[in-house]
Amino acid sequence: MIVLGIETSCDETGVALYHSERGLLADLLYSQIDLHKEYGGVVPELASRDHIRKLAPMVRQALQDSGLTRNDIDGIAYTAGPGLIGALLVGAATARGLAWAWQVPAVAVHHMEGHLLAPMLEPKPPEFPFVALLISGGHTQLVKVEGIGRYEILGESLDDAAGEAFDKTAKMLGLSYPGGPKLSALATRGHTRLHFPRPMTDRPGLDFSFSGLKTFALNTLQASERSAQDKADIALAFQEAVADTLTIKCRRALQQTGLKTLVVAGGVSANTQIRASLSAMAAREKAAIHFPRPAFCTDNGAMIAYAGCQRLLAGQREALAIKAKPRWPI
Ligand code: KG4
Ligand code: ZN
């Protein structure tokens, strides 16, 4: 089965073709970062308009790159949420329209399910069941995964998502949007001298809270001379606190569930220090750990094509309605 995947939930247009036996046949990504940069964050209306401009040509390009025609496509998967409603509608309407024209089924995919299954695209995919840590710009969740579509939320952020906290702290340090990777680069020049709290780790449970860390960073910055070194030291202390907090909660989730496989996905899973901290913990716990390759940590069409393909193979079929849900629990 060959599935076309379409991702337009935020500021990335992703288009991919996934073959159920041969793997990825095409994978295209267009990032709108330059478009939104001057505003310091994603402008929803600009995002929708740009998805409209880019999506159809990218679908054509993906077919061309893989030497396929529309007759080879067996189904279409699109991100139906959560995300920006206008942006989602572009992908959803395009997917539904193409599915109608090509007379193939289309399936609505949950964006976080896409992230969660992204490590399945790697040469050594994880085996079910596993614990998944999803860390993106909009979500921070620990999920018990029994199989495709069998998800139980073990814990989540009560306020800011991990990526959101990275982006807001980065902005505070004078870094441009999207700040997560830039804060991480700044942290490499930091000296270990500050200690930030590890929120909600001293009580039981698997929920997170990251908004206090951002305030802690602001107070530390204001109390400092705001030199370049101060900023790098704050970036490092912030990143260490996030990495440590995530690691403590993941260890707790593995111990509570008795599972021995941890999957880490979503934009923040591209962070080197977080990957290292989680990997060291997994080794101590004798657990297997799986990450997507860095390009599949952040938003992409490949993960949506994969998730949709699994759902179509399982026989899932949907009514012709165009589904777009800005808020949608996994
Ligand atoms: O999964 P994603 O591409 O989009 C959402 O579904 O939200 O995640 C984007 C988030 C942003 O907050 C971005 O700053 C963060 O992931 N991010 C990082 C890194 N790369 C991306 N945060 C920390 N370190 C990184 N290397
Ligand atoms: Zn995402």
* Alpha-beta content class: alpha/beta
Number of helical regions: 10
Poorly predicted runs are: none
Distance between the termini: 25 Å
Bound molecules: 5'-O-[(R)-(carboxyoxy)(hydroxy)phosphoryl]adenosine, zinc ion
| Topology pattern, helix = H, strand = E | EEEHHEHEHEEEHHHHEHEH
SS strand fraction = 15-25%
Mean pLDDT: 97
| Helix percent band | 40-55%
Shape: globular
The total count of strands amounts to: 10
Order of strands side by side in the largest beta sheet?
3-2-1-4-5
What is the CA-based Rg, rounded?
20 Å
The main β sheet shows up as: 5 strands, mixed
Structure description:
The chain is an alpha/beta fold. It is 43% helix and 19% strand. It contains ten helices and ten strands. The chain has helices at residues 33-37, 44-66, 85-102, 111-117, 162-172, 179-187, 211-222, 228-257, 272-284, 301-313, and strands spanning 2-7, 12-19, 23-31, 75-81, 106-110, 130-135, 140-147, 150-156, 261-265, 288-290. The strands form two sheets. The chain has a five-stranded mixed sheet with strand order 3-2-1-4-5, sandwiched between helices. A five-stranded mixed sheet has the order 8-7-6-9-10, sandwiched between helices. Helix 5 crosses helix 6 (179-187). It is globular and about 60 Å long. 50% of the residues are buried. Bound molecules: 5'-O-[(R)-(carboxyoxy)(hydroxy)phosphoryl]adenosine and zinc ion. Residues 10, 115, 136-138, 163, 166-167, 178-181, 184, 266-268, 270-271, 298-299 line the site of 5'-O-[(R)-(carboxyoxy)(hydroxy)phosphoryl]adenosine (KG4). Zinc ion is lined by residues 111, 115, 136, 266-267, 299.
